[in-house]
Amino acid sequence: MHVLILGGTTEGRRLAELLDGNGAPGLRVTSSLAGRVAGPRLPVGEVRVGGFGGVAGLTEWLRTHHVDVLIDATHPFAETISFHAAEAAAGAHVPLLALRRPGWVPKAGDKWHMVDSLPEAARLLPRLGRRIFLTTGRMGLAAFAGPESDGLWFLTRSVDPPEPGTPTPARTELLLERGPFSLEGERELLRGHRIDVLVTKDSGGAATAPKLTAAREAGLPVVVVRRPPVPAGVRVVTSPEEAVEAIREL
Known about the structure:
Helices cover 29% and strands 22% of the residues. By secondary structure, the chain is an alpha/beta fold. α1 crosses α7 (240-249), α2 (54-64) packs across α3 (79-92) and α5 (183-192) packs across α6. The termini are close together. The relative contact order is 0.17.
């Protein structure tokens, strides 16, 4: 059996590790990374880096490499590749599972403002504060570079810097860091930069969740971007262990 994992997440790496240690005869596991992050954390086993060339390219790869199960373990906001995976799996007649960590759930004391997109988040900010901690990644910075951000200051955290020429907010400080982050570190960051609004995507997981606790403790509003939907008809599992059981069933 050949399993292809579209990875790049903690869950994708953990799934590759579990399958690699399974010891099942004839089991081949390939992890595919998009290559958008410099120095990615590589999973165990066979790894390929780079895109497939859209739906047609992925469909052909599935057929040529005799893939028996496709696992979409990409980031919850990697919407394009998830829909490409659904189309390609259907075209190649390969079973598809979406591995998605559970989203965050608000707790007592949270002041969350749920939005459906980064532009909607940007339009909301002037009503909430002036010093923004932006944790939505480098790919969406252009959404906060418009006139609605005039007068706002941004602390922008991402793993890698934005591509040259990417529109960014006029007043911004770039913080290059990779999680996991500690609660005490997040508390100090909010205090030291006098942050009064947090903006994040509902990525889920524990690695970046301490910022939500720190914001709750400080009484800060948090703008949370909802996840895009998983393609219709795709089975969703919520942990690498559940994915292993589903693969065994297949």
